[in-house]
């Protein structure tokens, strides 16, 4: 992004090559390339200086870093593709971990020249969801043509996580309420009859009759 802002990115990545001779355009290219070298040197960590210390300009420095970190070997491509298409959703982890795993691997593949379309990323995000998320996966699959971007899919997944969190909180609240004692005197939850702050109610005729029967049976 810094190189783009300074106007040196197209020179660094080889889109604009150096004009022949010592023309004004060639001098401008040299100036941009020299500035790019300084920019790259300021942006990378000190441990990476060894890879660019002999570079004559920004283009050479960038090429050196690419050879080190964007090696486009068959083994590297296969490993990243396997990671991308096989990344599994762990429902016990926050959904952003799953999203970052897939989108981050897609960026790595693009960096070494592998063409990954946004629709491919969207498909994998839906395809690899855990079985417990099959409902939202089915909904997104049937509406995929209406989803304009990766953000649409990730936004739907984040919303689904929020909805599930609300349902879980509600279920826990209901379970906790069910465990609390119910007062036989006032009918309220949270205390028992002998701790009831309400006036003690008279026993109805049925309860009195039952108590009488129990009393007679004891004698």
Structure description:
With 219 residues, this protein is mainly α. It folds into two domains: 2-69, no CATH class; 74-178. 61% of the residues lie in helices and 0% in strands. Helix 3 crosses helix 4 and helix 5 (74-86) packs antiparallel against helix 6. The longest helix is centred in the last third of the chain and has 30 residues, at 150-179. The radius of gyration is 34 Å and the shape is elongated. Residues 205-211 and 213-219 have low confidence and may be disordered. GO terms for molecular function: nucleic acid binding; zinc ion binding.
Q: What's the helical proportion of residues?
A: 55-70%
How would a crystallographer describe the biggest sheet? none
Class per helix and strand makeup = mainly alpha
Q: Which strand-content bin applies to the residues? A: under 5%
Number of domains: 2
Inertia-based shape: elongated
How many helical stretches? 10
User: Average pLDDT, to the nearest integer?
Assistant: 80
**What's the order of the H and E elements?**
HHHHHHHHHH
Q: Can you describe this structure in just a few lines?
A:
The protein has 219 residues and is mostly helical. It has helices spanning 2-6, 9-12, 24-43, 58-69, 74-86, 95-111, 118-127, 134-142, 150-179, 205-218.
SSE topology:
Layout: H1 2-6, H2 9-12, H3 24-43, H4 58-69, H5 74-86, H6 95-111, H7 118-127, H8 134-142, H9 150-179, H10 205-218
Helix pairs in contact: 3-4, 5-6
């Amino acid at each position: 992004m810094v190189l783009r802002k300074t106007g040196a990115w197209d020179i660094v990545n080889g889109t604009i090559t150096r004009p022949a001779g010592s023309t004004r355009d060639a001098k401008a290219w040299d100036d941009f390339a020299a500035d790019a070298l300084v920019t790259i040197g300021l942006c990378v960590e000190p441990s990476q200086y060894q890879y660019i210390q002999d570079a004559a300009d920004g283009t050479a420095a960038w090429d050196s870093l690419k050879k080190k970190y964007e090696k486009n070997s068959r083994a590297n491509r296969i490993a990243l593709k396997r990671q991308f298409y096989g990344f599994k959703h762990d429902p016990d982890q926050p959904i952003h971990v799953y999203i970052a795993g897939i989108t981050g691997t897609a960026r790595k593949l693009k960096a070494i020249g592998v063409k990954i379309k946004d629709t491919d990323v969207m498909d994998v995000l839906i395809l690899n969801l855990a079985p417990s998320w099959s409902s939202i996966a089915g909904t997104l699959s049937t509406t995929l043509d209406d989803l304009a971007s990766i953000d649409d899919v990730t936004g739907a997944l984040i919303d689904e996580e929020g909805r599930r969190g609300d349902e879980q909180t509600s279920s826990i609240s209901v379970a906790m309420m069910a465990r609390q004692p119910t007062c036989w005197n006032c009918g309220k939850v949270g205390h028992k009859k002998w701790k009831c702050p309400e006036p003690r109610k008279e026993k109805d005729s049925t309860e009195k009759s039952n108590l009488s029967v129990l009393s007679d049976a004891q004698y």
